[in-house]
Amino acid sequence: MACALQGWSKVIAALFVTAATYNQLHVGQGGLVGALLSAAGGGGAEQLAQGQLPAGQLPPGQRHLAAAPYYRLWGVAGENFTEQGPFMDFSFAGYRHNNEVPPSPPATRSLRDFRAGQAGRRRSDSEALLAMVGWANRQPLDAGWLVLSIPRGTFRLEAPLTITRPRTVLRGAGSARTKLYVPRSLMQLYGPTNETNNGFYVWTGAFISLEGTGIKRTHLAHVAAPAPRGSHKLRVDSAAAIRPGDMVTLELFANGGPQLQEELLNHKLQASKRFRDKSIRFSSRVWGVSGRVVTLERALPLDVAPEFGPVLTFRQPRLYDAGVEGLTLAFRWEAYGGHHLEHGWSGIEVSRASDCWVRDVAFVNADNGVLVDGADRVTLRGLQLSVTRSRAGGPEGKEGHWGVRVGRSADIRVTDFAIAQRTVHSVGADTLGQLSVIERGVMRQGNLELHRALAAQCLFTDIHLGNASGGAYAGGGFYSGGPPASGPNTGAWTVFWNIRSNSGVLPLPQHNKGRPGACTFGPDLTFVGVNFDAVQLARYGLCQDWYYQPGEISPPNLFWSQLQLRRHLLAKLKVEGERGAWTVTQPLHITIVDDPPAPSAAPSQQQDQQQQQQQQQQRAPGAPQAQLLGGGLEATATA
């Protein structure tokens, strides 16, 4: 995107013109949306934290932030942003880098179509579900999209469902209308698992899986010269196999040494002796090719050095464009077995896949909600976790393990979520979980987990943690676990932006073997719109390489502000790629239900002004006017 950055002045001017349009979220009332909107002051978050609000019955509300100062390293609309600074452009985390919306093709087959068994016998709920998914997996890809519809009602699911075919969607009638009741755990069905050392279903296994069977990997070029973090250009040995518009993956390898880990830590903390056989990856569209120089749409997230053996590849998992949506997975109540003693009451797993999604799905009495492993560019939207009654178990007194786990994955987006369940790890990154975004969520007693093992460069923004007290298993906040031998909790350049709690303050970050605020938690971290506990600050101080600005900060949601800025840039440019011409433009408004499809052409400045005037005319006389705060929820200020 380097060439696009030359037009900053025009882009910023356009952003100012359309400020009122950008900052509107046209939303309904009640449900998850109500909880999200009320999190900043409507009272709903406190009720949620007290366990008064089961999933699907969260209160309506309207969020109005007082005018807040802008963070100096971002500015009003990104005019101060530099890709070599303390945070990257996170707007690419999600399905197809948010250049496209997860589709909604029409239903193909219904569960009713699979009720008839052999010899006229009617199949049970579970048998029909298995038959329906099995039929879909056997269909050729040229059959196009297959949408498997589950009608309104409650159905028993007595064995896991696994989708392996691309362009396949499992769709209920909505999380409040379609329920899959699971009476037996994975441990009861299959006994101990071979995937973990102790046989428990700690972070693996689920009752619905989007599971790829392999990855197609084609070598394109060796990177022939070093490149600095923030650069868009790579010099390669040959660009013959690369053309503008291609989706490529930059792969970097540890090659038995500590250098790659040291780079992820910005050469400031000691690398783990583990993970010296690992690799990391970074995907981007190609912006241009000139001789042997390849220009990427995205800026490099770290320095690229020859000792990492950098290569550009085409990397395509065999599973892509698959989704699960519109249903509730309700597990039979059982007390939580305890940390690392999970029996396998787990909801959805997305593994060895790319460009997939889960949306409008609720989990009741789960050990784990959603587990993402070995995946790229996945959007998880509208998730809810709750319990029918407390299932606290183990010495920790928790009710589950992970709400959402991102492991060995990149560019995962978790958005619009509500977690009323007290889990050990609410939402965050585990081993090699990188370049991902957790945004617009509310929790009863939440923590933002960074679980060591090369978790790095994640963004947490516009989140309410509820009763987020600190300390081991006490509540949450920034408290994070993971074995100390796996290194710091996070690599450099992870960002926390507008993180709130019921008390208005949050404890200092702490790992399970260190004091609050220990610098070994991670280097070069950004805490903006975070109010640390004053007593802890006075006692422990703050790491010199942590960026800290307390108080409510604008924009309220860094991800949305970055995404809107990028959409404006892309609206002015056109790239020819393997999918043909593609253009992404700025939407006229943003909905919380789903990202709107892009118009066919970018609106002119005159059209933007007309849209703004129409919107202002719709406001009641004397109503407060919207401020330019980037993405997120509407921010208003009275005159």
TrEMBL record:
<feature type="signal peptide">
    <location>
        <begin position="1"/>
        <end position="19"/>
    </location>
</feature>
<feature type="region of interest" description="Disordered">
    <location>
        <begin position="594"/>
        <end position="639"/>
    </location>
</feature>
<protein>
    <recommendedName>
        <fullName>Right handed beta helix domain-containing protein</fullName>
    </recommendedName>
</protein>
<feature type="compositionally biased region" description="Low complexity">
    <location>
        <begin position="601"/>
        <end position="639"/>
    </location>
</feature>
<keyword id="KW-0732">Signal</keyword>
<dbReference type="InterPro" id="IPR011050">
    <property type="entry name" value="Pectin_lyase_fold/virulence"/>
</dbReference>
